[in-house]
Design brief:
Layout (H helix, E strand, L loop, with lengths): L9 H7 L40 H30 L7 H23 L1 H5 L3 H26 L1
């Protein structure tokens, strides 16, 4: 561990003086810490200000919507595999498979992007954030309509 030329944050040391606080990385008790690194795991410790209860309703709404779409298409892929390989129905329509594969990939990528960029999305105005969450909930409904039209 290289020596850091900066002195430790005095506010951090004051906060940890005579107070039992676990390290966020390894849960080591940081009481009476003398530097800015955990003695157990070596991770740098910083004193931060954050929301006590971050507003996660829009994030969870979008997460549920996109997960529903991915789950729906994932179950349909399992159904297709069972029918195709165990029942030996060679005459199945390939458009059925393409619709569920494309639907699964689109929902999975959107879900990954939603989680990856949530911190940036959280900083958008509430109306924009909720519009994005609503779009995430509408995506599985659109997928179901497309799927229904395909199997007719």
């Amino acid at each position: 561990m290289p020596d850091d030329p900066r002195p430790p944050d005095p506010l951090l040391l004051q906060f940890l003086r005579a107070r039992d606080v676990p390290c966020p990385s390894c849960a080591y008790n940081l009481r009476d810490l003398t530097g800015d690194r955990c003695p157990e795991c070596g991770q740098e410790i910083a004193l931060r200000l954050q929301l006590a209860e971050p507003k996660l309703a829009a994030m969870l709404t979008g997460l549920i919507g996109l997960s529903t779409g991915a789950g729906f298409n994932g179950l349909l892929l399992i159904y297709w595999a069972i029918i195709r390989f165990y029942v030996q129905m060679a005459a199945m329509d390939n458009s059925f498979l393409w619709v569920i594969v494309v639907g699964f990939v689109v929902h999975a990528l959107a879900l990954a992007a939603w989680l990856r960029y949530w911190k940036a999305i959280r900083r958008t105005p509430p109306a924009v954030r909720w519009a994005m969450a609503a779009a995430c909930c509408l995506a599985p409904l659109v997928d179901i309509v497309i799927f229904s039209l395909t199997i007719l």
